[in-house]
Structures
1.
Amino acid sequence: MLTYEECLELSDLTADEVDAIAEHEHTNAMIAMGLGHYLITHQGEQKIKKIILDDIEKAKRQKNYAHAEMLHKVLKHFIATHPENRSTKAA
């Protein structure tokens, strides 16, 4: 049986990126990890970027600025580690 950490390594995502997907999709981390991996392997990086941007906007609406700042760092890391997103800017 694979551990969470082993699955995370295989997903090409960070724990924070998985958490952002889970938050947006209202699901647990393992399902979010599977969805994120699917998107990465099927040209869905822009969808992941949009998910993180949506989470940032929600955090700002809720005046949870610390969470919004953390998600902004997650977005910057995602863009930096997925070259197909380098032409787009973080919010």
2.
Amino acid sequence: MVVSGCAPALLRDWDFLQSDVIPPLLTDPSRSPTAWSIGCVDDAVALAVAFRHGQRSGTSHLDVYASEPSPGRGEMGFGLADLRRVPTLRQSDCLIRQDRRWVAADQLAEHVFLTNPTAPVDLVAVRPTEDKCDVLLDEAVDQLRPGGQLLLITRQPDYETAVPAGLTAIGANGSGQVYRKCEQTRSRVRSATNCRIEQRPETLARRRAEDELVTNHVRLARSLARRFAHHGEPADDLEQVAMLALLKAAKRFDPDRNIQFATYATSSILGELKRHFRDKTWMLRVPRTVQELYLSVKHTRDELTHELSETPTVAQIAARLDVSELAVLDAIRAGDDLRPASLDGWFGDDGGTEVPIIDGSFDQCLDRLQVQASLPNLDDRERLVLKRVYFDGLTQSDVAVELEVSQMQVSRLLAQAVAKLRR
């Protein structure tokens, strides 16, 4: 069956489907026939609905393969105008309401596979386009078994002369014509599309579940991306990495493993963000062990600064990480490769060879403005802890004595305050 993008939805030709297209598929009730819709998933759903109505007994089903949707088809699903001739019983049994459109119910969608068939089929549906008409028709005829049907649906009557040899017209309506394949016919052109047989059999139901998982966990991906917002990468880039990781997690998720998707997605997104920093943000390539040690040195240096109220020495950092001082120095030097200074920098009028230090006052001003806008979200104790630790230079132990609480409570208040500022 072939359907053009300019033709209306196939369900509008309900009587034509029931009289000329579906009956040949019902001749052998012990066998489940197969069909292929080229270029339009909605046509695959229409065939499955029409077959279920004509078959009635429920002893077999129609497996329909569907290629990628045609760009000219618009949004997927059916409107009320497309369903006027479909019996009400089949509407409620096969279709469900979703986003102001009617789409395949899960029980029906399980038999619509979003891939190309790997064996000959009984029926082929194609919507020919001007640039690929001959190729699509040859693919359709090549995939048909002898005696199978091809339905060409188009508003243009001159398509009748373009049908390959070996086909006999057996029926027609106002928008298309049905042909039967009389013999095994070799196609003139075999497209690479027809040779991609190693594909995962994804169904409409699976894709709908993946879309729902992604939609319901978008906020989770954004919140995980914001954790890394102050690591030198643009927030938009981090959010894009997180969203791509969420899509991959939805495709790989197996609900039979008795694990919450949020747990699985969190691990996948965090891993993808860390790989992004490891592989994409370093201007010069350094060993992975050195990259990880640099991050550990940076984190340890911040911790010791708060504990000692002064900048720690290399020996103190090495002792905390249980590594050699030379390894710490190598990691610090590697940190310079994360964002090396530009070779196009201004060298001054004195002919010197040193690249001048980049003034970061503008970035600091922006950071202060962002912090100032977020301060109203903190309570009095959280603001006091931030002021004492980051502005007055006190240690957490000193702040604990002032507030008459434990050092652990001060650490928790500090972590809560920082988390609120990052939102």
